[in-house]
Design goal:
The chain has about 80 residues and is mainly alpha-helical. About 55% of the residues lie in helices and about 0% in strands. The longest helix is centred in the middle third of the chain and has 19 residues.
Length: about 80
Amino acid sequence: MPRLDTRPRLADPDAFYEALIDMHRDLSDADSQLVNAKLILLLANQIGDADVLREAMALARQGVSAPAHPATEVVQ
């Protein structure tokens, strides 16, 4: 079974990061989220392995906690 490869593989990571930032330039927050979702689905299709994708999702979620919902947040 293939495993998620987390070794650095981008030839020019700075150029990739710049392109990623440029992709979001002048977009509203909602449009930026839509572009991110579309990119994720395109890359998931390219990867094509559900086990690898689940491993990537778990790794991405690690250390990130859900923020309190503003309507249920306790104010002291």
